[in-house]
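[09:14] KT: can someone run the structure on this one? pasting the chain below
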Amino acid sequence: MAASPRVGDTVEDFSLPGGVLRGDGFERGDYTLSQQRGKSLVLAFYPGDNTSVCTKQLCSYSSGLESFTDLGAEVWGISPQGVDSHEGFARKFDLRMPLLADTDRAVTRAFGIAMPGMGLRRAVFLIGPDGVLRWKHVALLGATFQSVDKLAGQLAALDAR
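[09:31] RB: done, structure tokens below
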């Protein structure tokens, strides 16, 4: 398993297919990390669409999106399911952030959170506008997740630096 990027490291570029629910449509496209330069990014890795804890996590992030956008940040949800699964998940729960499909788990491995035979560890990485990792949390068990308030507080602290 690859080592997780350390705080202060520039995060390696990646591109994943995904989509975002806008109005009644689900807009599909490729999401590339380097194209986000200039604004902060919250990468929320989660084990699976339509699972209990993941649904609570993504619903809370979606309903709290304004807390992130007010701080100049975007949130991307990343899991191993395909874009079709993400579309159904987004439509079912009205999730309004991009959901990205890491079907071959290459990005999961690059972030050092792959769990062979079990998928991935629930994790959140905050990337600054310069592409540098500013904060991270990797769960040992993944039964809980980082709250919107906790993440917004971390983002605000980054802005204060």
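[09:33] KT: thanks! The first helix runs from residue 52 to 63.
[09:34] RB: yep, looked fine to me
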